[in-house]
Specification:
- By secondary structure, the chain is of the alpha/beta class.
- It has nine helices and ten strands.
- It has a six-stranded parallel β-sheet, with helices on both faces.
- Helix 4 packs parallel to helix 6.
Length: about 210
Amino acid sequence: MATVGILGGTGPAGRGVAVRLASSGYAVVIGSRDAERAKSIARDVVPRGEGTVDGGTNEEAAACDIVVVSTPWDSAVATVSALRKELAGKTVVSMVNALAREGREMVPIYPPRGSMAAQIAYALPSSTVVGAFHHLPAAQMEDLDSGLEADVIVFSDDDDARRQVAAIVDAMPGLRAVIAGSMSLASAIEAFTAVCISINIRHKAHSYVKMAGL
């Protein structure tokens, strides 16, 4: 089974993806600029099943077969650019949303290329970028007993990579992949995260996306 690295994986979103990946059997490496912090956090991530979670540097995470970008949006491009050689020829999954808080709402920020997935793809010309994991409540993801039953919208210009990531998502407990289409949808999909978070702030909830009718 493929190994999965998570760049900047020490935050709640990265930990949530890590525990559910490992619970479906994957060997996961949580990466960070601070390897000792990553190792400490990895020890507290307890998956169910035969998968594993280890901590290390972002370089060690980038050495995995598939790499997820889970850094803050304003450091994502710099992080992947420094790892361009390590990420060449690999599928790179962007879960990055560019958002800012205004009062009780989150609002989307539109980077020069329209989306963070497009920015990352531009920074990694030899990698295949797929978008996924944007609309998930981090606390529910990290808690395997939360009862989460969420859909994960997947997009990319590469159909094989889309299907590869969708298969990984479908194997993760509580998640179902929904392939939306090409990178042209990235801006709308990422921006909708602001709507999801704003609803949760207003209603003090942990709601998530579920596509009916499929």
